[in-house]
Design a protein that fits this description.
The protein is α+β, with helices and mostly antiparallel strands. It has helices at about 20-30, 35-45, 85-100, 115-125, and strands spanning about 10-15, 50-55, 55-65, 70-80, 105-110, 130-140, 140-150. A hairpin with a 2-residue loop joins β3 and β4. The longest helix has 14 residues, at about 85-100. The chain binds coenzyme A (COA).
């Protein structure tokens, strides 16, 4: 279902009760998913964890660490049956608007260079390549680098 045709998805806070379902979805989305412990620890640590939802359907979620005027996007996911329909772009735009209310000046994230869909989404929204973290991610053949990207919110309307 296209995000253009159905613009009223709700961004709501994640709770501990959501964690088993979010971890189940994460296992469908990544070869090296977060565990229930990773999500629970993020909530306990006070990270901004949110769920993007239409009625009872979870279409995506995000985990953000806010610190020193910067937002670090630790998890950003659209679940498989909703991918490729504009929801990722829409969720990121909602997150940009949300963190701006907390006087955040920039959003940082890491992405696998092999994740061309995510890379295109981020570059299309104005994120720029900043640096490479060598051998950051586990990968089938050893390790994969992480590309560090940043969106300077002072340049975003
Ligand atoms: C990466 C992800 C968040 C993108 O969300 P999405 O809802 O699928 O993406 P959208 O439909 O909003 O598309 C946004 C942009 O992504 C790129 N994109 C989306 N699907 C694509 C595809 N099949 N092929 C190439 N580029 C694609 C395009 O640049 C697109 O912009 P355009 O429509 O103007 O061309 C989502 O696919 C996902 O969660 N994937 C699995 C988990 C993951 O990789 N998360 C990111 C970790 S850093």
């Amino acid at each position: 279902m296209s995000a253009v045709l159905y613009p009223d998805a709700l961004l709501r806070p994640m709770s501990m009760a959501d964690v088993p379902e979010i971890a189940r979805l994460d296992a469908q989305c990544y070869p090296y998913p977060w565990t229930t412990g990773n999500f629970a620890d993020s909530l306990s640590a006070g990270y901004d964890c949110c769920i993007y939802q239409i009625e009872n359907d979870i279409i995506g979620y995000a985990v953000i660490l806010l610190a020193a005027g910067e937002a670090h996007l630790l998890n950003f996911t659209i679940v498989p049956e909703w991918q490729g329909a504009g929801w990722g772009r829409q969720l990121m735009q909602k997150l940009v608007n949300k963190v701006r209310q907390d006087d955040i000046g920039s959003i940082w994230l890491e992405v696998r260079p092999s994740n061309t869909i995510a890379y295109r989404l981020y570059s299309g929204l104005g994120f720029v390549d900043v640096a490479v973290r060598r051998n950051y991610y586990p990968a089938p053949a050893g390790r994969e680098d992480a590309l560090i990207m940043c969106l300077d919110l002072s340049y975003v309307e």
